[in-house]
Design a protein that fits this description.
By secondary structure, the chain is of the alpha/beta class. The protein is built from 22 helices and 27 strands. It binds iron/sulfur cluster (SF4). It holds the Pfam family Aconitase. Its cofactor is [4Fe-4S] cluster.
């Protein structure tokens, strides 16, 4: 049977399991990436494994999210990242060099390789034929240690593109159309693989826009073949030798096929507050706009920004609009300066930010109260822009330029003529300057000192499992608790990213102000939850902080997939009520007891005695044998230490 592109790459990296859909597989990761928000924890985890150097082919630490230097914490964290990179043989991309995913596909992604990154949009480099997956920092640390990454063998959806995009319609509209059809859950457990005549006219940056927002579909990853267009891009980047052709076999079998006729596509827009709330732009015509942002890892390539400059040339943006612009990378920024594009945009009224995430994630450039912001980024969740009641719309650079000029959401084909909407080719030779990436030197690692400012605290490690567990119910929660309910995003992004003792003080603070106090009183505790406990962002802080506070188990009706993986990584038992009605027979402050834990974990069933109410509650552990071993070891770090006798 013929193979898809994704299957070909998985097959050459398979180290564990069989490629049967739905079963667990382990794959070797060739490359890793981290950024400043998730990187500090990942390198603390790696450091604790006492492995002198990373075992991957290539690892890189980017600084791109929070570039503000309002106090010592950010600079301290950046120096920590720089020194850990040097010590462990990791490349370090300095603040100002650009957004991790955009720099990575320009300079380091190699078709046919595997990449794991501690960010959900790691999928971006799938545009270049890489099998690229986002995960928690601990999984990235494990990959750096040479451990396989485990996942459920995904189903593979073939997205067949036919025809060609018309002027005014952009690659962004392809992924918005998919989100309209499939929703933010449409890609769960799947790899989206793009083929068809329509891909031939999409350049690598266009493809990267599409694979980037595959994360919004919930897909494991998205991938394009590595073809002639990929070769041309790598040649223009001065690294043609990195190219290999990877096409699907003619008789490749896909689990599902979706067709999009690019000739029929029209400009689309995602309305507030969900990326799948997509309609044709014309349905939002005349919505008044306060802010326009062209930037982010989704849409800030050379051609994205040059298109906007041509549309706005010799014109001035609407007086009521704050027009913000930020190139994805320093390479793109330098080219735009060289070619007079930045000059032209500043003349039109654009405000230029340095290459980085910033506005995309609410670090600066928050819209006015109740304001409307049209953005080329990928997420428009409530509050992400930094303003809780702002209305954020997601669209292409063409739609953003039309909004900047007119002050309203408009179909760009009604605002600009066909000459202004003409497509622009990417440079045939990019400006290559890697001077802001520090390569690891061949120093003896003992000579490198890790620099730790007061904001860098050691990564807490689970104390390990005991044969008998006696713990109290510290909190009884309802359905759909999010990781934001456990640890709010703002605290991590702003400054506390690796300071677990400080982060733990705000655990559950929004919904249960005395939570932390009770964990101190009980020492060992269990959280009881309803359905879908731990949904939302993949942040592992939502597992580490409870572990630090002595939480030994989550007992819930169901637990969200990524959060369950994070709990296991940090040695917290993810227990599910065998009979959901038992949720009623347990109350806050009850004393619970489990005996012979190790045997019970092996059997994946755990009986809990509720000493307060004098009854037994049966629970199940929906985990693989490998995950059972991790739990018995007291979490992933303990497991690796025991295995390597550290
Ligand atoms: Fe995440 Fe936005 Fe940065 Fe992309 S630009 S990595 S979506 S914060």
């Amino acid at each position: 049977m013929g193979k898809t592109v994704a299957e070909k790459i998985i097959k050459t990296h398979l180290v564990d399991g069989k490629m049967t859909k739905g079963s667990e597989i382990g794959i070797k990761m060739d490359q890793t990436l981290t950024h400043d928000v998730t990187g500090t924890l990942a390198y603390l985890a790696f450091e604790s494994m006492k492995i002198p150097k990373v075992k991957t082919e290539f690892s890189i630490s980017y600084v791109d999210h929070n570039l503000l230097q309002v106090d010592y914490k950010n600079m301290d964290d950046h120096l920590f990242l720089k020194s850990t990179a040097e010590k462990f043989g990791v490349h370090y991309s300095k603040a100002g060099n650009g957004i991790c995913h955009s720099v990575h596909y320009q300079r380091y992604a190699v078709p046919g390789k595997t990449l794991i990154g501690s960010d959900s949009h790691t999928t971006t480099t799938g545009g270049l034929g890489v099998l690229a997956i986002g995960a928690g920092g601990m999984d990235v640390a494990m990959a750096m240690a040479g451990e396989a990454f485990h996942l459920t063998m995904p189903f593979i959806t073939n997205v067949v593109l036919t025809g060609e995009l018309k002027p005014g319609v952009a690659p962004k509209d392809i992924i918005l159309e998919l989100l309209r059809r499939l929703s933010v859950k449409g890609g769960l457990g799947k790899i989206m693989e793009y083929t068809g005549e329509g891909i031939k006219s999409l350049r690598v940056p266009d493809r990267a826009t599409i694979t980037n927002m595959g994360a919004e579909l919930g897909a494991t990853t998205s991938i394009f073949p590595s073809d002639e267009m990929t070769r041309k891009f790598l040649k223009a980047q001065g690294r043609e030798e990195d190219w290999t052709e990877i096409l699907p076999d003619e008789n490749a079998v896909y689990d599902e096929v979706i067709e999009i006729d690019l000739n029929e596509l029209e400009p689309m827009i995602a309305k507030p507050d969900m990326p799948d709330n997509v309609v044709p732009v014309k349905e939002c015509s005349h919505v008044k706009v306060d802010q326009v942002y062209i930037g982010s890892c989704t849409n800030a390539s050379y051609s994205d920004i040059k298109k906007a400059a041509v549309m706005l040339r010799d014109k001035t943006v609407h007086p009521d609009v704050s027009f913000i612009l930020s190139a994805g990378t320093r390479q793109t920024f330098q080219e735009l300066i060289r070619d007079g594009v930045i000059q032209s945009l500043v003349t039109s009224g654009a405000r230029i930010m340095e290459p980085g995430c910033g506005a995309c994630v609410g670090i600066g450039q928050a819209p006015n109260s109740g304001g409307v912001s049209v953005r080329t980024s990928n997420r428009n969740f409530k509050g992400r822009s930094g303003t809780m009641d702002a209305h954020v719309y997601l669209a292409s650079p063409e739609v953003a330029a039309a909004a900047a000029l007119t002050g309203y959401i408009e179909d760009p084909r009604r605002v600009f003529n066909s000459r202004e909407l003409a497509a622009f080719v990417e440079p045939t030779k990019y400006l290559v300057d890697d001077s802001q990436v520090i390569k690891p030197k061949n120093k003896h690692t003992d000579e490198v000192e890790i620099l730790r400012g007061p904001n860098i605290k050691p990564l807490p490690i689970n104390e390990g499992i005991t044969e008998t567990l006696k713990a109290h119910v510290v909190s009884k929660l309802g359905d759909n608790m999010t990781t934001d309910d456990i640890i709010p995003a703002g605290s991590i992004f702003s400054s506390l990213r690796s300071n677990v003792p400080e982060i733990s003080k705000i655990t559950f603070g929004r919904i249960d102000p005395n939570f932390v106090e009770r964990t101190q009183q009980y020492k060992k505790s269990i959280i009881v939850g309803g359905e879908n406990y731990g949904q939302g962002s993949s942040r592992e802080h939502a597992a580490i902080a409870p572990m630090y506070l002595g939480v030994k188990a989550i007992l819930a009706k169901s637990i969200a997939r990524i959060h369950k993986a994070n709990l296991i990584n940090f040695g917290i038992l993810p227990l599910i009520f065998r009979d959901k009605k038992d949720y009623e027979y347990i109350a806050r402050d009850d004393e619970l007891e489990v005996v012979q834990i190790i045997n019970q974990i092996k059997n994946k069933k755990i009986s809990i005695r509720n000493n307060t109410q004098n009854l037994i509650i049966e629970t199940v552990l929906d985990i693989s044998d490998r995950e059972a071993e991790l739990l018995i070891a007291g979490g992933r770090l303990n497991y690796v230490k025991q295995k390597n006798q550290i």
